[in-house]
Amino acid sequence: MICGMEYERNEAIDLLGRTPRVLDAWLRGLPGGFWRGDEGDGTFSPFDVVGHLVWNELDDWIPRARLLLEHGERRAFEPFDRFRMRERDVGKTGEQLLDEFAALRAQNLDALRELVPSADLLDRTGRHPEFGVVTLRQLLATWVAHDQSHLAQIARVLGRQYSDAVGPWKAYLGIFRERA
């Protein structure tokens, strides 16, 4: 059974620090077809996911944490454009995005250690433009879950590249039944 865990800073930093290494091992050097495959209209390819993660490092997690700590509920987070990377990353390679993501994630984890040195800040509140009042704990836990969600998405996209090739075994492979 899956049980919900509370956000714990050091565990979260450990998981967040692994994501660039997982993506690098998984994606660097893959042929372009693997980088650009997706699950249909409105979905992300692995290239899109890495670009999206870069954009989150630039414009989401740490900027929102800083805003929350500085202004509390008085100032709402700016809405986040989930698809901004499609304009931003034109002409880039997947390997360039992997390098950019790794560098930004390392900087942001250092910033997180500095911004939230202890658990007593985690219950501070801010304002999300859609959800209303949220805590720093929720924002930071979402950062971890967001990474894991996109890793699962990449696993599905990569596995589904062989959906026709597996033949009758498709019936036994859950990756072909589930959809995000």
Note down, in words, how this protein is organized.
The structure is a single chain. With 180 residues, the chain is mainly α. It has one domain: dinb family like domain (Four Helix Bundle (Hemerythrin (Met), subunit A)), CATH 1.20.120.450. It contains seven helices and two strands. It has a two-stranded antiparallel ribbon with strand order 1-2. Helix 3 (46-59) runs parallel beside helix 6 and helix 4 runs antiparallel to helix 7. The radius of gyration is 18 Å and the shape is elongated. It starts with 8 loop residues before the first helix and ends in a 20-residue tail after the last helix. The model has no long low-confidence stretch (mean pLDDT 92).
Name the features:
180 residues; mainly alpha; Four Helix Bundle (Hemerythrin (Met), subunit A); 7 helices
Topology as a string of helices (H) and strands (E): HHHHHHEEH
User: How many individual helices?
Assistant: 7
Number of structural domains: 1
Strand portion: under 5%
- How confident overall, as mean pLDDT? 92
Proportion in helices:
55-70%
Low-pLDDT residue spans = none
Largest sheet: 2 strands, antiparallel
Task: Examine the coordinates and then state which fold CATH places here, giving the name of the CATH topology.
Answer: Four Helix Bundle (Hemerythrin (Met), subunit A)
State the CATH architecture: Up-down Bundle
Span between termini: 20 Å
Number of strands: 2
Q: Class in CATH?
A: Mainly Alpha
**Per the principal axes of the C-alpha atoms, what is the gross shape?**
elongated
What Rg is obtained from the alpha carbons, in whole angstroms?
18 Å
- In what order do the strands lie side by side in the largest sheet? 1-2
Oligomer: single chain
